[in-house]
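Researcher: Please predict.
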Amino acid sequence: DEAILAAWKSGSAEDALAVLERSRAFPRGFVERTPEADPLPADGVIVEYALLSDRLLIWVIGRQGISSYERRIESGEVEALVRRFVAAIRRGSEEILPLASRLHDLLIPEPVSAMPQDRVVYVIPDKVLNKVPFAALRNRRSRRFFVEEHPVALAASLAQLRSRTQAPAAATLSGPLSALLVGNPTFDRGVFRTLRSLPGAEAEIGAAGGVFRDSLALLGREATPARVLAELDRFDVFVFAGHAVVNSSLPSR
């Protein structure tokens, strides 16, 4: 954080972004290769964050260049806002909309909101921002949720997005596909005490079964890690409906 801040204060937003990228445990900073050699996604922009102790730094990165923004806000205040927002969603409380709007104002620069609706926003969060459901942020002016205005995708780093852009296209799958469908697996409630059972996930898997020519559904206690791994290679598609737990320190986990 101190290295990012030092680069930022020196007047070089791109140097600060390069330090941030190196801190994400990837082998090189993004500025060491040209856009021609290392292309960015063509269908939208990347929004990357660095949450420092006394400010939030934001970079908007696209094929037209890089713009940067600074919000002077304590990290503790951001953490409190995120906690309140996530708790409000879980409870279904009246705080959802005002908090969604407040976080949209904080996290989404105006040029991103003004983009055409078919533009994808690739979000690279930092620290507690990994817990933010960006799709649920709300534009105060349009009164629409962020996902209603733009497709939203998450990534661990700019380097990861670029390597994905460079990867060869996957082989096209033709004809009816087979699928392994896993829903609402049983988990250790002693470890994940706040997570609930998801009967809606089982209903989702039931509906998905009719889409595929050949499918196997594993629900509840049937969906053990050993069984899933044993069956996985027999199918073209893997569908999972269940909980996901974010590791804020290592989002790739």
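Model: Confidence is low (pLDDT under 50) at residues 26-37.
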